[in-house]
Amino acid sequence: MNRPGYSLTAQLGALFAIVAVIVFSAVGFYLYRALAVQLQERDEAELVERVLQVRHLLAETPDAGSIQREPHRFLDAVDVSHGFFLVIQTPGGQVLAQNTAERGFTFPGGAVAADATPSTRDTRHTVAADGGALQELTAMGRVGSSGDVVRISVARTAHERQEVLRAYRLKVWIAAIAGAMLTAATGYLLAHRGLARVRALAAQAQEVTAHNLDKRLDADAAPAELRLLADSFNRVLDRLQNSFNKLSQFADDLAHDLRTPLNNLMVQTEVVFSQPRDIEEYQNLLSSNHEEFGRLARMVESMLFLARADHDQVALSTERLSAAEELGTVAEYFEGLASDAGVSLKIEASGEVWADAHLLRRAVSNLVANAVRYTPPGCAIVLAAAGSGAGTAISVTNSGPGIDPLHLPRVFDRYYRSDQSRSSQSSSAGLGLAIVKSIVALHGGHASVTSELNGTTRFALFFPGPAM
Ligand SMILES: Nc1ncnc2c1ncn2[C@@H]1O[C@H](COP(=O)(O)OP(=O)(O)OP(=O)(O)O)[C@@H](O)[C@H]1O
Ligand SMILES: [Mg+2]
């Protein structure tokens, strides 16, 4: 019944019709059977009554000969017009009175004794001479005080009963068909009405486009069964809107961030080209351009990395690593830069960390690069690692200007830089911490930050241990 493409309303209408036909037919059949049984019982009771009536008349009759002389007294007692047949015979088979001369019928089996009272159970089925079905009762009867015994046979055609039943059967069929059609039509209309709210929801959903992603379905007005669907749809829209906004923001930022270095390249190249230069000036231009290209390449690489991480396309080769060794490698790499900035790097690490070596170094490097930039000369940057049962926490702590608590929740966002001076010549793209967050997330861990203005800033990365 749930084949695709079939109208739910039509299916419900058809179901209603089938159920109605079954119910009406079952009820009709039951009533028909009950009526048939009742009519049969009525016929049997009437046969018994007629036999008793004839016996009563016989009691008032002097002898068997009187029956033959006045048959109408008896024949009138059974109402021929209602299809009753009567035959009174001597035990020898001589007919004394009968109203069935032209039709006749057979008498199967014996007769109820003259002293016994006949009951409906003594009635039998038989056939008339013309083949019609009959219900028949035969009993002996005593004639007055003469001591004569006669045989009374009363029968009734089933014709009238069958007529009643046939008419009834027809009515049942008509009622079943009419009822089914009526129920199907009502079912269809009700389903159509009930589904109006589904159509309303669909119309609301159709209004949602890329330009009005803030539109939501009216879940409260939806029927209870559809509220879940409407809520889920709204949540999908929430997520879509969120992603869509991020994507738009990403495209804006991307355009903005690429425009500045590209403009720089254009402008400085045009300036150099504006008049003839000597070799050294061209060399300077190329080297400056080379630096700018390097920045662009790094930026594009970072974006690509984030895009791949978003789509789980970064292959992880996790292994057990010595935390102190890994932090040492990063510190060694930053030694030159740190000493230029007049800051020192300290390692306080023990234990192991379960991570991809390359990505772990990349994450810690991004933190150390930031720290070196913001730590005032003479201060130290601490690279620490501490293991617990669940995993290892790696942190990079430095003192410096700190991050405004207002900005703190957003530092891990892409392109987020607390100075916000996008047009600045600074080489930062605001992707470093976003990459850190992605790397930790790829490992199933999480990154956090605490910072005080003009105090200590601490970034902590938690790497979970190997899954059991
Ligand atoms: N140790 C720190 N002390 C103070 N501010 C910090 C520190 N680390 C990060 N920040 C702030 O967080 C911002 C985001 O850092 P993030 O590393 O994501 O970007 P970036 O360093 O500006 O650029 P990129 O790392 O892509 O070159 C920084 O611009 C800076 O304002
Ligand atoms: Mg950075």
UniProtKB/TrEMBL annotation:
CDD domains: HAMP, HATPase, HisKA. Its EC number is 2.7.13.3. Residues 253-467 form the Histidine kinase domain. Its main location: membrane. GO terms for molecular function: ATP binding; phosphorelay sensor kinase activity. The keyword Transmembrane applies. Residues 192-245 form the HAMP domain. It catalyses: ATP + protein L-histidine = ADP + protein N-phospho-L-histidine. It is an enzyme of class 2 (transferase). This is Sensor protein. It comes from Duganella vulcania.
